Fold these 2 entries.
Entry 1:
Amino acid sequence: MFIEGILAFTLASALLVFGSPDRYAGKLATGLSLVPLVGSVLMWLDFSSGGNALLADGNVAFQNTVDWFTFTFDSFELTLQWNVGVDGVSLPLLVLTTVLTTLALVSSWTPIDARQSQFYGLMLLMEMALIGVFTTLDFLLWFVFWEAVLIPMYFLIAIWGGPRRKYAAIKFLLYTNLASLIMFIGMFSLIFGLGDAISTLSFTEIAGALRAGELGSFAGMEAETLRLFAFVLLFVGFAVKVPLVPFHTWLPDAHVQAPTPVSVMLAGVLLKMGTYALLRFNFTMLPDVARENAEIIAAIGVLSVIYGALLALAQRDLKRIVAYSSISSMGYVILGLVAFTPHGMGGATFQMVSHGLISGLMFMVVGVIYNATHTRMVGDMSGLADRMPWTVGIFVAGSFGYMGLPLMSGFAAEVLIFIGSFQSTVIGNAPLFTAGAMFGIVIVAGYLLWAMQRTLFGEFSVETDYEVGTAPVHDIAPMFVLLGLIIVLGIQPDIIYEAIQNAVNPLNDPLTLAVDFFTGGELQ
Amino acid sequence: MVDVFNFVEAIALVPLASFVLVLLLGDRMPKKGAISGIAATGFSLAISLWVVLDLAMGGEVYHEELFTFVAGDDVGVELMFGLLIDPLAALMLTIVSLIAFLVHLFSLGYMNDEGEIGLRRYYASLSLFTFSMLAFVYSNNLLMAFMFFELVGLCSFLLIGFWFRDDGPPSAAKKAFLVTRFGDYFFLVGVVAVLGTFGTAAFAGEHSFIIEATHVLDPSHSGEMNTFFGLGEQAWITVIALLVLGGVVGKSAQFPLHTWLPDAMEGPTPVSALIHAATMVAAGVYLVMRMYGFYALSPTALSIIALIGGFTAFFAATMALVKQELKQVLAYSTVSQYGYMMLALGGGGYVGAVFHLTTHAIFKALLFLGAGAVIIAMHHNENMWDMGGLKSRMPVTYWTFLFGSLALAGIFPFAGFWSKDEVLLETLQHGLSGEPILLVGYGFGAAAVVLTALYTFRMVFLTFHGDPRTETAEDPEPIGWNMKFPLVVLGVLSAVAGVINLGAIKEFIGEDALFLKKWLEGKTLDGELGSLSAKEYHHILESDYAAGYEVTEISPLGPGALALVLALIGLGGAVALYRGSEPTPHMTKLGRVRTLLMNNYYLDEFQVWLATGLTAPLARAANKFDQSGIDGVVNGTGSVSMFTGQRFRKIQTGIVTNYAALLTMGLVLLLLVFALMGGWF
Amino acid sequence: MTVPLELYLVLSASVFCAGLFGILVRQSALHFLMAVELMLNAANINLVAFSLEHGNLTGQVFALFGLALAAAEVAIGIGIILVLNRNFDNIDVTDAVTMRW
């Protein structure tokens, strides 16, 4: 009942904040958001890893299943359930959500100066939906939360966004909603294809039936075609969310128009919904299709990495730079997932968490600079280090984190993905794909170093007429918390990586596992 | 006796503690954190010396896994942090902590006494650098080495860009990081390849990838490794070796990735001495030494190393000839000297390379610190043509600088002579046995000896001799004890450090007096750690399955004398050209060649073009394609929907009668359709 | 004697067409309302006629519903016409072309 408690509390706090006066909304929301944060951390402390939630032998923590109602199709019955629980993949993402929400709420104190109670209420509502996405294990329930995320996000961009907020918000909503529709069709064609083989929409049951090869034919498609058809629909649906090239163009617009805390949530958590769903659906339920098309998927990953980085290189707006580098970073996740090796999948999941922290940090720091200078264009300012030493220090640290500096979580994540994908037996010529994706680390260094040199260093000057001074403590503090987490995870990834491995390893290629050669490496 | 190895971790961790301390409290500490840095590096130096002593007395080599980075859940590769302190690492630890200690002291005079601001940042970065470098040196596996290899790059970035308010330093810092990052890309691919091939990245121990690779090739053992792309085992080993070499070439500023080092001189001079001369640049070369057993397996990789090294040694020396800034000359000289080390490694001269690394660290740190003293005296004017006559005005600096120069030029009996001779000798010995590429390298190296002596003494004459050419040079600013002390220590060492391996006269003093060689052969290196011994490296080098080098025994006296003669020719040239009270700028007579050299063969321009002329337009094209192509399709879908909507909206006139008419027509149409379908007509 | 069903249907169709004609060509809202009433009553005639034919009272019940509906409709319709008159000073339905004015 723990998860229900967190969900209900977050929903109640959202309603409470909606009704509170604007002056106190920010602090009230932050205070209330500490409860899900503490709750999820307690879950984390209590968690003992035990396999993947979607596999039959997996041990789901905090699980609670209640039958809702049953409805009958011509030939078979489906029971809808309330079904929640977490495993080593979803719990880190759950903690990431609660941590980032609280920090994003603190970072909103400065930039949000109108209709505060609605803003903070929507943020909490979104947190509730996100927690739902990462904890539910029933498809229909999950889909409700999945869609529920979009609504607060739409309003957050459309009301508090920049000059082109309406365009960006509608583009975001339509694009992702269409993607959800495609994904929904894909999923339901699988469900109908399974027919009698399943009696509920529980992920575990669907995955079990699909992995056992019980898929029948549906709508004139044989099982073989249906699998591929559903896989493609699901992949496209989630690729929009991730986003993967070429479905990425909503992201920069949304990021540039969204206010800072919303960007933090968008990059930090919302993008992870896509990769999380890819891992849960495409790579867990239909692993055979993923394996057969591994080269294509890996190529999409590499393309996202390199193309995203090249696009970032061409930008002049700091926020666009960070937005495009998110595309680049999420490309690594795809490469890791499709490798079907321990470090590949594990590293990809680790990268989800790590990128959530790092990109959150980068958006916050860009936001703080914007609060002070009221511009984000690289050419419009220089020498900020002179006036805002702490902010600039964090900018430099965050940028190096993005570049994959060792002892920060980004490096651990990327190197694990690279090791995993290099060893992959699923992708043909895996080393070539790996080396291609790795070139991203050179380009990312190129544009971040360039941006740093132009904006932070040199003689101080700003094009706008604002007094630039040090940022308030409540702007700096959340960034230090994030930086601390990034460094702690960078020095000791096993804090969460162990649980992640435990959950993803059962999905991996038994062939790789059989090569005990790789375990002979440790020194006595 | 207390076992020193109980606290070897502290060699690196104490500077890390100093970093944290200075970062948090630096502004309130005495001397803005300098004292903390000095104490920390002093401590590291003491422990390192103790370790050296312990090993020299026959102590065991220390090799421990200490920290699990990623456990791997029993199925993935396990990634560990551990310490490996063998004779090579112990020597390097001592060098690094010694130079770091002296540079901290020197900084008191160079930075604090000059009233620089931002000293907390300076000392914090310096401590962080010391930590990372020391940790790199005692890493026991390739991944950990890579991690600290990158961290020293970060510190280098921070320290080059120390004066961030000017335009030059941030740009130089960016270039330094980016160029080395380009090299590190290959290195990282190499690290991943090693892990993918051998399942471990350990340098030493039963299952180290080096031993595993040796066993795979050695017909008398059996080992296992994966290969990719259908390459043979040795070919794949060569590929990995060359990938790792990318990082080495970047960090050790070898052709063609040397361009960042001269720019890095924008940083404070003590930083140049520590990072860009003695230690960080050495990291690349050190890495090759660390996994020399692996490189020795691949004759192709060795030839390439030797060729890169020899060429760089010569190539950089030519550019040093025409530079006018003191630090620029030293920077190119650094590039050139690291070329010698690479040449030695490629030529099978492991001991020679270590020897030259040691002596070079000492005399190049000395020269940079001396240059720093001159720069302070000249109020940050670095142009040598504005100097002159400093000899009588700053005698301590002059004499120590002269010692360093003699060592750099390779004049008997200074340290540089012995080590450079060792490098050339070992390359020649292996080259004469049917390795023409090594002979080419040797030729480059020998030619560079002349140039080295020439530019070194051009520098000495222009700076210290003759008449003062500006008013600042007439009356230079005096420097304090905290700058003189490091100079004197290093000056003495430059004169005598050659004693550790007097290879050129071994016929007179006997093999036993070659202390460094014996040290690296390590009497306690046996069993599974035996693979780290210089003896083992020679054994592998000479094995047919590996490099297959052979040694042509020649007396070391001949090549030694030749090297000395070449150096004296260069020295003589400098004396002839730049002697006297009013030296004339002879290099301008070179005309267009000089312009070419001044512009560094336009390599910088080429690399800038790669970034701004090739990558940037490509990125802009991608952006354009993205905006109009991909996003165009997305927005196009929207526009088409909007357009159709607008057209169809026209039938919604708002006039009730029209709707009624439409309804009626619809009904009639439906009736007709049903009628037709139903066959009523 | 009984009137054949066809005659009822012809009557109903004629009344309906009259109403439809009114809707299509008249501009005055009052005429409009009357035309709608005609069409409703045409439907009622149909219902009642079939009810009689089949001996089933459901049709007549529905016709009663229809009458009540027509009454309610007239009430609302007249209200709308009054509002139209107040805003446009006439009751021409082609003047009111937007949802809000």
Note: The helical segments of chain C are 5-25, 29-54, 58-88.
Entry 2:
Amino acid sequence: MAKVRAKTLTCPSCGSAVPVRNVFKAKLVVCPSCDSQLDLTTPDFQVLGKLPDRAPPQDAVCLGLKGKLEDGRAFEIVGRLRFTDYDDEESWFWDEWLLLAENGEYLWLQEEGRSFELHTRFVPDNPPDLDTLNSSRLLAMDGTEYRVKERGTPRISYVEGELTWRAKVGDSVAYIDARGPGGGFGVEFTDDEIEFFRRKRLSRFEGYRLVGLQELLDLEDRRDELRAEYQKGPKAMGCGGMIMAGGALMAFFLFVVLSGVGGYAARSTSSSTVDVASLQAGKELGKAKLSAGSEYRLDFDAVVHPSASTADLAVRDPRGVDHVVLKVSNLQKTGPADLALGFRAEQDGEHVLHIKGTAGSLALPSGTATPGSSSTGLTNVRWSVKSRPIRPDGFVLVGPILLLGALAFFLLGAGRTSAASARAAREYRRLRAELIEEIHRKSRVQES
Amino acid sequence: MSHTVHCPSCGGPVEVRSRAIQLAVCPFCDQSIVLTPEGAQAGGKVAALADMFTELSTGAAGMLQGRTFQVAGRVRYAWSDGYWDEWAVWFDDGTEGWLHEDEGELSLLRQVPLEGPVSLQTARVGKTLRVNGTDVYVTEMRSATVKGAEGQVPRGVAPGQQLQYVDGKVSGQHWMLELVDGELELFVGDRLPDDALEVHGA
């Protein structure tokens, strides 16, 4: 027995042609021209009412689309119900598309947002009692355990195409969504009837593929190409962004390294005094562990009394050889180092910072000072040995400028990337909207 | 074994195909004739049933599960949002049955005697109902009206009559209880595969 027979009726309200895909089972059809709901159980197709407002499809899926089920059966989308549900704070809706398979079987494709579920009616061997369905979190059915995910009682808010019963806007249907092996099952029930559906979740792309929207899938594939077009080449954006980010990071790293932050090999901890007698004999100011081959910077600052005094400041390696000699004379203030010299250590190990008065220069005028007195010689001595000694003058300004520049470069690059992505996204949305409009237009032409 | 009765309305001769027939529609005046052991009574005029969309028709013959059959008549029942047809069929081996057609789906049902009382008041969708010692899972229950009839059927129903029905499942089997005029009847059968029926036409 043929299970599907299409027929075109005449709308008793507006006279337009009303296609019915399966007159054997359809009980209600909505006239696509005037939205009259026609009762197919009456000989003259009585008008049950008119839909107040059209509710366009939420995305690309629409009446008339054709596809193939997994088992190869061809189908067509012949009807739609929109359900609306709400809680204390918000309402939401979803569409259920009625699929008519070539053998006369009906299935439902649920569309909510951009996710899909395929529902196939079935009769369980051992259906659960309604009280269990209504109250339990876990349901056992036909030897399998399912977990109830959702319950609700939405209302029908829109009807389109043909349906196998006289569904009315405002009718409510209770449902239970149970998840388990193979996707789970759903139950829809009223006081009068209960039906079970197997549910199979489909990704957005699987849904599009099912209903034959290959052109939409092709557009999805083109998204990356679009983005690349707006970035002048598919790889430019990615490499550019990485180079910019890398440049910024390297600049910052250089700044940290060259600024010597945390790079002290040794430094004086407080002001100290070296009297004239010690200067004449030579005095060890401090020690620093240095590495052979590494470069350091020696800073020195002190107040020298009398102003005519001079001394040599040396870094003595572990073998006792002096490598750096800094002439100290006429320093009259404390503060940031006034004497500085870079040097490279030739030996590993502990080096001694040593100072010794230059012969003759510290000969004190008789009676002007007492040898050993703190008022003569060096006071407020500060020194340091840094492990990053070759910072050029003005680096303190250059570092931040370099960092800011790099950051600006990075932000500019990111902004460029972001702007290109936005343009590509806009273009994608425009193409997608055009494509969907074309899909809907073709469907309307086919319907009429 | 067929016999002839005269229409109580127009007097026309109506050949009744079996003693089991309880309702016949006069082919001359569309009077429904209720057949009881006491005789034929007028049950009221019936409007011709709108032949909507089905391959079955009164008088049609066909093949079902290897047996030939003929459609003797049908009763149409209507509920608030739809209807279904029950086609009375006679098989070549002399047995009778009902082809229950609802939303294009067919079940072949046969009447089964009730073995004890069944309280339809306790029936609820989604729960089981004890019938003939079996738990029937109730999938549908509604009130309906006899919308009309044609041909000859082995049921004593009349157009406009109210009834309650309960559809249920037992391991995939279709069980149906119908309460008409206080009399409860049970029909049991199987849903037919889509390609089970072959109709040759009237």
Note: The first helix of chain A runs from residue 130 to 135.
